Amino acid sequence: MEPKWLEWAKKIQAIAQIGLTYSQSIFDTERYQELREISTEIMAIQLQLEQSDILDLFSREIGYATPKVDVRASVFRDNQILLVKEKSDGCWALPGGWADVSSSPSESAVREVFEESGYYTRPVKLVAVYDLNKQGHPPHLFHIYKLFFQCEIIGGEATPSIETSDVGFFSEDNIPPLSLGRVMPHQITRLFEHYRQPELPTDFD
Questions:
Q1: How far apart are CA 165 and CA 187, in angstroms?
Q2: Alpha carbon of 113 to those of 36, 122, 174: distances in Å?
Q3: Which residues pair with 82 in a beta bridge?
Q4: What digits encode the pLDDT tens for the residues 138-157?
Q5: What whole-number distance in Å separates Cα of residue 72 and Cα of residue 178?
Q6: Global pTM?
Q7: What are residue 201's phi and psi, to 5 degrees?
Q8: CA 48/CA 28 separation, integer angstroms
């Protein structure tokens, strides 16, 4: 679970963002701006980051505050799962990233697989909808929902990208070091269970 200070800071930020969106009073707007500054100061101190950078990040968030959506794809071949090596941290992850505006979640997953691994796929099942905060991931400044789709290969070949340095298939007992902000070991285990038992219902939370 994420630390309470981060949970509180994100709630304050969400209240500030919603208030700044709907407030029609200059005095209330000033109060919501102050709340945003308080929340970013808490984050900056605890995470040892520059407050101005965090404030700039959240200042670009407009409208009603909602969780961000991260999509991931599990792709299997010969009882092995497809992973890509992230250039950002040198660890491995399921292909995926932020869902795109104007694309459905499954379309975003298929696009991410191709861009990060070189494989063309089609979605066959929504395996899980997880709340990042309840899955043991490292804390994140945003509240995130993670959608895991099982996809099957229909073409292409292994091709690294500007974000990935390697592409490979791994057996369940030979999973390399994972990029934990993107995928957790117990999630990989669960994806193998869904692969072996396609009748399993979608996981959630």
A1: 23
A2: 36, 10, 21
A3: 169
A4: 999 999 999 999 999 999 99
A5: 14
A6: 0.87
A7: -75, 165
A8: 30
